[in-house]
Write a structure and sequence with these properties.
The mean pLDDT is about 75. The chain has four helices and four strands, in the order ααβββαβα. It is an alpha+beta fold. It starts with 6 loop residues before the first helix and ends with a helix. Helix 1 crosses helix 2.
């Protein structure tokens, strides 16, 4: 089926996933999507609210890192006690590293940053975080 728009299928699946159903569900969604397509073609693209895109280029790899905790995770087995995963991403090279951890404290975060980033790649210029307390503290500021 070349050229078919699958948005009606996606919307229908989302409605069914949350537990709603009515006899004319498929027809109603198809009609709704068809009417939206015709409105888009007539209206054109509105560009008055678009923000200007700004691209930042890094001169060297390993200068900008992203840190994030995935937490808490379901225990994989009886022998492991790791409940958190600390994920680190290098923005320039797209290198990703991850480590399973038992806790997400400041000490664990600082140790990971020192052992896996600072000693291997040097001190980064930018660290992107998600404003969690184990990333924003005096120990991390002093270390970097």
């Amino acid at each position: 089926m070349v050229g078919r728009h699958f948005i009606a299928d996606i919307i229908t699946k989302k409605i069914l996933d949350v537990g709603h159903w009515w006899p004319t569900l498929f027809k109603d969604i198809h009609d709704f999507c068809k009417s939206c397509d015709s409105r888009k073609k007539m209206g054109g693209l509105k560009t008055n609210n678009l923000a200007e895109l700004v691209t930042t280029f890094l001169e060297e790899p390993y200068m900008k890192w992203g840190l994030n905790f995935i937490s808490p995770i379901k225990l994989a087995g009886r022998l492991t006690r790791n409940k958190y995963i600390l994920v680190v991403t290098n923005y320039a090279t797209k290198w990703v590293g991850a480590k399973a951890l038992k806790t997400n404290t400041v000490v664990v975060t600082t140790r990971f940053l020192y052992e896996y980033i600072l000693t291997r790649f040097g001190c980064p210029l930018i660290i992107v975080i998600n404003q969690e307390v184990h990333f924003i503290n005096d120990t991390i500021k002093h270390l970097t």
